[in-house]
Amino acid sequence: GQQVMQIPQYQHVQEGEDFTTYCNSSTTLSNIQWYKQRPGGHPVFLIQLVKSGEVKKQKRLTFQFGEAKKNSSLHITATQTTDVGTYFCAGKGSNYKLTFGKGTLLTVNP
Amino acid sequence: SAVISQKPSRDICQRGTSLTIQCQVDSQVTMMFWYRQQPGQSLTLIATANQGSEATYESGFVIDKFPISRPNLTFSTLTVSNMSPEDSSIYLCSVLGGPGEQFFGPGTRLTVL
C-alpha cells in the first residue's frame, strides 16, 4: 500500500532560524496536503499542492511539490514561537483517502 | 469550511467496556472519516462512513471492534468495543471540504485503564 515517509521526526530551533520538513511517497500522488497540529489540538489544513513542481507560499511558509509528484517539502523562514506544533504531510493517491506521514514536531526556543 | 463537534471530549474507561463517540457536522456531507491518533503518533484511518451504507474499514480494523453508525448526512458515531489499554488514543472524525482538504473535529481523548 501507499506509504508516506516524513523527516525529521523532531526539530528544535532557535527563534528566527529556518525550518524544513520533507515528505516522500512510495507512489506517485494525485496531490499532497499539509496540516499543522498544535499541542493538544487537532490537525488543521494548511495547503494542498496538485501540480508537478508546484510552489506555494503563505507568508513565511513555502510549500513545494516535486516534479515526479512523489515528494514535498515545507519550509518556514525565520521561525516564531507561534510556529510550534507538529506538521504532517498527507498524500492522496488514486482514491479519496489520505495517507499521513508521521509528522515533524517543531519546537522553537524563544 | 465545516464546523465539527465531538462528544465526549475525553473519557477514562475500564478495560472490557465500550465507549460510543459522537460526531456532529454543521452541514450535510457525504463522507465522514474516523481516524485514530495514538500518543505522539500520526493519524491512521479507521473507516469511511457513508450515509445509507455500511462503513468501509481499513486493514487492521474490523466492524466488531469499531462499529460505526451513519444515520444521516450530519452525524456519525464510532464505538470502541471491549476496550483494552492499547485502545488509548485520540479518536478524530473528519469530513471533506472542497477542494479535497479534510476538516477535523476536536478529537476524543480516550484513556483505558
Domains of chain A (count): 1
Q: What is the average of the pLDDT values of chain B?
A: 94
- Rg of chain A to the nearest angstrom? 13 Å
CATH superfamily of chain A: Immunoglobulins
How many E-type strands of chain A? 11
Q: Mind summarizing the main beta sheet of chain B?
A: 7 strands, mixed
The CATH homologous superfamily of chain B: Immunoglobulins
Shape of chain A: globular
Q: So, CATH architecture of chain B?
A: Sandwich
H/E series of chain B: EEEEEEEEEEE
Q: Any idea of the CATH class of chain A?
A: Mainly Beta
Cα end-to-end separation of chain B: 36 Å
By secondary-structure content and strand pairing, the structural class of chain A works out as mainly beta
Stretches with pLDDT under 50, minimum 5 residues of chain A: none
Determine the strand fraction of chain B and express it as a percent band.
over 45%
Fraction of residues in H or I helices of chain A: under 10%
pLDDT < 50 runs, ≥5 residues of chain B: none
Explained architecture:
The complex is a heterodimer of chains A (110) and B (113). Chain A has 110 residues and is mainly β. Chain A has a single domain, classed as Immunoglobulins (Immunoglobulin-like, Sandwich), CATH 2.60.40. Helices cover 0% and strands 55% of the residues of chain A. Chain A contains no helices and 11 strands. In chain A, the strands form 2 sheets. In chain A, strands 2, 4, 5, 9, 10 and 11 form a 6-stranded mixed β-sheet that branches. Chain A has a 5-stranded antiparallel β-sheet with strand order 1-3-8-7-6, with no helix packed on it. In chain A, a hairpin with a 5-residue loop joins strand 7 and strand 8. By secondary structure, chain B is mainly beta. Chain B has one domain: Immunoglobulin-like, CATH 2.60.40.10. Chain B is built from no helices and 11 strands. Chain B has strands spanning 4-7, 10-13, 19-25, 31-37, 43-50, 56-57, 68-72, 75-80, 89-96, 102-104, 108-112. In chain B, strands 2, 4, 5, 6, 9, 10 and 11 form a 7-stranded mixed β-sheet that branches. A 4-stranded antiparallel β-sheet of chain B has the order 1-3-8-7, with no helix packed on it. In chain B, a hairpin with a 5-residue loop joins strand 9 and strand 10 (102-104). Chain B is globular, with a radius of gyration of 13 Å. The interface between A and B is medium-sized, with 19 and 20 residues.
